[in-house]
């Protein structure tokens, strides 16, 4: 009994000897298992306080967490706008697995000047690391554009973390945690996305510089300058890549150059905008306003050495906010009121940048939360703008117009030649045969079967299948109004327009648009329906555009219903100004595709809708090969034709992905 009592006293004494106040109050430990092989957002587990003046010692920080009024982030990524306060965050991570783990605690936002990581282990060991934009890059535990801190955690161990942050830029603290391998996966993907962005901008810069030397138009050199400053150098600074790639040992220069690049970016917007929209001729008064406003970033650059960084950074945010709306208004006025076509590209591109830029600026100001959209929208918008501006800068509009006029001219000449021989039926039949493929292309991974049954000696249906590039098949199927010799002549015209179109059209919507421009107004009030598809066997992708044509059907042996695909689009010849939207569908081995003209529906009519009967027929035979399906359709056609001549031409094309 005495021994038991002594043992209990020793246990109590041992407990009191090693017990400490909870270092991180009002928060629950984060078990490592919740990361589940991914990066994990800690905003649900953060408590924090603000300090002014800044705290530096562990004792001061620990005392504040025990005595100060603490705030919780409650699942919202901390974002405080432009503030001069220091923020200290606290959280606990518990290794609930039976293995030693190396974890990386990191902050994705790269514009923090001073970041201090402190980790307190259960053994009493304290690990510290101080890094930030104003410290050499070698201070960071890992080569990453944000800030990271590596810690080893033993099985069943809990580690308490304190993170202190301060900056003269906006205060955003997206704290994350990940196991080492998952962190490197995240960094690799992040690096890939940055590489894609800078690759797009770099290629477009070189391309437009080359065009400038060819045409000597100053708009190109202003645009290249804008890309170099805004989309490359300023983005390097904004994304924290300057110390990673170029200046690892020059933290003060990295810090100082950010505002300089910010105002240079704002300045380059002006000459680029003035020349792009031809403001001097299109809007002289607005041109003078632009010249006046362009002096603001120049004056700001001159004031940078004399005024505080924070004040100038806030001034840049406010000026860019106002400039964005002004430039959007001006571009709309020039594009749609003054009807200056290149300004439409400017308006569309600048709208993308404004959406992304405003989201970023408002996040910096603390009005918008930190999320995937506000973190990446500026870069995404700028990448889209770069592409749209490149289109607007060139004389592509005039080139395309001239090309269309040439196609129309050739189509008109060929039409006159065909009409001259239209009275000869035999010649019309030979002409019809020449418009259809004599040999179907053979393509690995694709089986093709076609059927063509004119209602008379010659008909108005048309189809063509062409190999387009190394991995794509382009297919067009069309139905001219009526049948017989006139329809055959119109189909031949369509063939000519189609073959000329393939020289520059690389997607189905453009194919239909180019054909429509060539034929509209030349058809003597006749119209045609058409459907164009591109099958990409490498990407396993189907692109479809439709001009009033019956839908195509897609199915496989596992289908519970036949997929009916019919994008909207007006008839060919209805108007020259018609846009044909596209749909994109994934393809899998075993998928079958049926294209046809509406004559096939008549064969299945039996008191009910022919289309509904055809769909039911296909659903029953969905597992059959295209050869078997072809035989079934062919047999159905011949049986119905025995009852009497068909009222309309019948054409169908079957594809199977193998």
Structure in a nutshell:
By secondary structure, this protein is of the alpha+beta class. It has three domains: 20-186, Immunoglobulin-like, CATH 2.60.40.2380; 217-393, no CATH class; 437-657, PPM-type phosphatase domain (Phosphatase 2c, domain 1).
Structural class: alpha+beta
Count of the separate structural domains: 3
What is the strand content? 15-25%
> N- to C-terminal separation?
83 Å
Q: Based on DSSP secondary structure assignment, what is the total number of beta strands?
A: 23
Described by its quaternary structure, the protein is single chain
CATH class of the largest domain: Alpha Beta
**Over the alpha carbons, how many angstroms does the gyration radius reach?**
34 Å
CATH topology of the largest domain: Phosphatase 2c, domain 1
Please state the overall shape, judged from the principal axes of the Cα atoms.
flat
**Largest sheet entry:** 7 strands, mixed
| Tally of alpha and pi helices | 18
Low-confidence blocks of residues: 1-21
Fraction in helix: 40-55%
Look at the structure and name the CATH superfamily of the largest domain: PPM-type phosphatase domain
CATH architectural type of the largest domain: 4-Layer Sandwich
**What's the rounded overall pLDDT mean?**
82
InterPro entries: 7TMR_DISM_rcpt_extracell_dom1, 7TMR_DISM_rcpt_extracell_dom2, Bact_Sigma-Reg, PPM-type-like_dom_sf, PPM-type_phosphatase-like_dom
Domain PPM-type phosphatase: 443-657
Signal peptide: 1-19
GO molecular function, one term: phosphatase activity
How is this structure best described in words?
The protein has 658 residues and is of the alpha+beta class. Strands 1, 3, 4, 6, 8, 9 and 11 form a seven-stranded mixed β-sheet that branches. Strands 14-23-22-19-20 form a five-stranded antiparallel β-sheet, covered by helices on one side. Strands 15-16-17-18-21 form a five-stranded antiparallel β-sheet, with helices on one face. A hairpin with a 3-residue loop joins β15 and β16. The protein folds into three domains: 20-186, Immunoglobulin-like (Sandwich), CATH 2.60.40; 217-393, no CATH class; 437-657, 4-Layer Sandwich (Phosphatase 2c, domain 1). The radius of gyration is 34 Å and the shape is flat.
């Amino acid at each position: 009994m005495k021994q038991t009592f002594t043992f209990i006293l020793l246990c109590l004494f041992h407990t009191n000897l090693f017990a400490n106040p909870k270092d991180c109050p009002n928060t629950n430990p984060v078990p490592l298992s919740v990361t589940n092989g991914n990066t994990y957002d800690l905003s649900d587990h953060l408590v924090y306080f603000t300090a002014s003046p800044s705290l530096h010692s562990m004792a001061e920080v620990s005392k504040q967490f025990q005595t100060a009024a603490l705030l919780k982030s409650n699942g919202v990524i901390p974002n405080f706008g432009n503030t001069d306060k220091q923020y200290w965050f606290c959280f606990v991570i518990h290794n609930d697995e039976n293995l030693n783990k190396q974890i990386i605690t990191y902050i994705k936002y790269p514009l923090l000047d001073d970041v201090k990581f402190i980790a307190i282990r259960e053994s009493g060991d304290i690990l510290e690391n101080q890094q930030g934009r104003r410290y050499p890059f070698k201070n960071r535990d890992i080569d990453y554009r944000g800030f990271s801190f590596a810690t080893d955690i033993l099985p069943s161990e809990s580690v308490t973390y304190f993170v202190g942050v301060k900056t003269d830029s906006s205060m955003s603290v997206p704290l994350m945690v990940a196991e080492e391998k998952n962190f490197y996966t995240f960094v690799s993907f992040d690096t890939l996305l940055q590489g894609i962005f800078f690759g797009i901008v770099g290629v477009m810069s070189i391309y437009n510089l080359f065009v400038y030397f060819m045409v000597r138009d100053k708009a190109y050199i202003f645009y290249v300058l804008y890309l170099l400053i805004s989309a490359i150098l300023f983005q390097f600074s904004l994304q924290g890549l300057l110390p990673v790639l170029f200046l690892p040992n020059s933290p003060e220069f990295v810090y100082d150059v950010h505002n300089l690049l910010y105002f240079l970016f704002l300045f380059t917007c002006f000459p680029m905008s003035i020349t792009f929209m031809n403001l001097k001729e299109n809007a002289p008064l607005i041109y003078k306003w632009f010249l006046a406003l362009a002096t603001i970033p120049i004056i700001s650059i001159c004031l940078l050495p004399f005024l505080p960084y924070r004040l100038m950074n806030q001034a840049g945010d406010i000026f860019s906010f106002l400039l964005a709306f002004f430039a959007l208004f001006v571009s709309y006025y020039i594009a749609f009121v003054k009807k200056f076509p290149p300004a439409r590209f400017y308006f569309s591109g600048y709208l993308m940048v404004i959406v992304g830029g405003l989201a970023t600026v408002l996040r910096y100001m603390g009005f918008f939360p930190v999320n995937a959209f506000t973190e990446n929208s500026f870069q995404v918008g700028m990448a889209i703008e770069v592409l749209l501006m490149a289109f607007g800068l060139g004389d592509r509009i005039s080139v395309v117009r001239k090309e269309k006029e040439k196609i129309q001219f050739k189509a008109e000449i060929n039409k006159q030649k065909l009409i001259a021989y239209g009275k000869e039926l035999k010649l019309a039949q030979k002409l019809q045969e020449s418009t259809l493929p004599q040999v179907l292309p053979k393509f690995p991974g694709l089986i093709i079967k076609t059927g063509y049954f004119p209602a008379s000696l010659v008909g108005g249906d048309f189809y063509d299948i062409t190999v387009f590039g190394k991995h794509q098949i382009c297919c067009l199927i069309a139905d001219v109004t009526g049948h017989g010799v006139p329809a055959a002549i119109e189909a031949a015209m369509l063939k000519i327009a189609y073959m000329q179109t393939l020289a520059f059209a690389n997607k189905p919507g453009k194919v239909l648009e180019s054909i429509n421009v060539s034929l509209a107004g030349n058809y003597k009030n006749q119209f045609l329906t058409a459907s164009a598809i591109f099958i990409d066997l490498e990407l396993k992708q189907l692109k479809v555009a439709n001009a009033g044509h019956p839908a195509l059907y897609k199915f496989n042996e596992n289908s519970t219903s036949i997929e009916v695909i019919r994008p909207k689009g007006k008839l060919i010849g209805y108007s020259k100004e018609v846009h044909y939207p596209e749909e994109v569908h994934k393809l899998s081995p075993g998928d079958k595709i049926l294209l046809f003209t509406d004559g096939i529906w008549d064969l299945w009519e039996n008191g009910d809708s022919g289309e509904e009967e055809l769909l039911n027929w296909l659903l029953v035979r969905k597992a059959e090969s295209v050869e078997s399906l072809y035989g079934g359709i062919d047999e159905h056609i011949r049986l119905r034709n025995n009852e009497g001549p068909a009222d309309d031409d019948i054409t169908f094309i079957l594809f199977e992905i193998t």
